[in-house]
Amino acid sequence: MSKTYVLDTNVLIQTPCALLSFEENALVLPIVCLEELDRLKTEEGERGSNARECIRFLETLRQKGSLLDGIQLESGGTLRIEPNYVNVALPEDFIATKNDNRILKVCKGLEQTGTKVILVTKDMVVRLKAQMMGIEAQDFTSEQSPRISEQYTGRMDVYTSDENLTAFKKKGLVPEDVFSAPGDKKKTITPIYNQFFIIHSELKDKKTMLGRYNGQAIVPLDYQKKEPFGVRPKNVGQYFLQEALMTDANRCPLVIVKGAAGTAKTFYSLAVGLEKVMDTEDREYRKILITRPNVQFDEEIGYLPGTEQEKIAPFLRPVIDNLELLIDRNEKERYKSERELRGKIDELFDRGIISTEAMNFIRGRTIVHTYLIIDEAQNLTPKQAKGLVTRVGKGTKVILLGDPQQIDHPILDERTNGLSYAGERMKGSPLCYQITMQKDECERSVLAFDAAGRM
């Protein structure tokens, strides 16, 4: 049975193609949405770009007929613009001229004519208001990833016989050799390409080996004994992380790393990057390029004095903190001369070994032979994540780092951010390694480890 959906502008701003996501149902776009799109179309950045894309799509529909009467969509449904119901009564405390409330007026007016409507909005407050007015409201979920607890982690504990584990390094293990719980060989697994495994002996649970599924068998890690830039893995998650980062860009051009603060995501990524750029005879990458989603030349910092590097420097302080630890490994001597330590770090930037760029400046480029670190990737939108990954040229390795539970973006959450989106879409790709660091793998400090488990 066909349903009638009323769309809020924020759905279109996040997902411009949303109008084609409702199958054979009727879509209603309140006239106020056109006004909001018109206001947003001149903005810099993704919101303005998405607004312009929506307007162009609506223009193609307008050329086919009257949007006031309704236009057939490719998805099988219909779309019409609703200019009426401006005089529908709202609850006493609702401001009638507020755009959100004008959308609620349309919903209430349609219901008064006998049309059962569902309001679709990304705004939780609007959904609360709709409930107060007896209007059904939903979030737009077409691009939502599973909840954090259900998202792909890239790792799994499995069990095998003691004999199989002993022969693992020479022969590997086919999926039929392992099972998900000790003592029950019926619980076989379906491994995912490039998934990591902690393989336990069914007789001795603490007897373990580490492996990765290569599409045919679970095989030993290639870089388990390496120490990139003098850094040695301190836990299982870091062994997996090291494997993903050390694998060359031809086999693994994309690495997705999720995890709480203090699990060494940025630290280890920088260590491997420095190893690959500086310490190899055959230099694998030209440079390390670092960016973060909140580093943009928008109205907040675009007019500040200074060069691009000077403008974005405050946002990249976490990178500098990690470089301080990597450049001088002697904890007793490291901070004796702050000027000398800073000089060593400045040299990395001056020589072009490391460079930083604003996110907007990466758009439209083809990045080749570069070790590209995108820190705080949970603040990417799905469109930004796709745009960045598709910028990758020959010989470039992209590392997406972040914690989906620490989001600063106003319209994103743990299920709609670009990091989670990329993780679910790239799951099973032979060109992508993924790993989720666990809270008990926090190595920042004793306090950080304790807090990660308690808070």
Describe the structure.
This protein is α/β, with parallel strands linked by helices. The protein contains 16 helices and 16 strands. The strands form three sheets. Strands 3-4-2-1-5-6 form a six-stranded mixed beta sheet. Helix 2 crosses helix 3, helix 9 crosses helix 11 and helix 14 packs across helix 15. The two termini are 46 Å apart. About 1% of the residues have low confidence.
Radius of gyration (CA) equals 26 Å
Mean pLDDT: 88
Percent of residues in beta strands?
Answer: 15-25%
Large-scale geometry:
globular
CATH class of the largest domain: Alpha Beta
CATH superfamily annotation of the largest domain:
P-loop containing nucleotide triphosphate hydrolases
Strands side by side in the biggest sheet: 3-4-2-1-5-6
Coarse structural class: alpha/beta
For this structure, the CATH topology of the largest domain is Rossmann fold
Count of separate DSSP helical elements: 16
Label this structure with key terms:
455 residues, alpha/beta, Rossmann fold, Archaeosine Trna-guanine Transglycosylase, Chain: A, domain 4, 3 domains, six-stranded mixed sheet, six-stranded parallel sheet, 33% helix, 16% strand
Topology overview:
Blueprint: E1 4-7, H1 9-14, E2 26-30, H2 31-40, H3 45-62, E3 71-72, E4 78-82, H4 99-112, E5 117-120, H5 124-132, E6 136-138, E7 155-160, H6 162-166, H7 168-171, E8 196-201, E9 208-213, E10 218-220, H8 236-246, E11 254-258, H9 265-278, E12 287-291, H10 308-312, H11 317-327, H12 338-350, E13 354-356, H13 359-362, E14 370-374, H14 382-389, E15 397-402, H15 418-425, E16 432-436, H16 446-454
Helix pairs in contact: 2-3, 8-9, 9-11, 11-12, 14-15
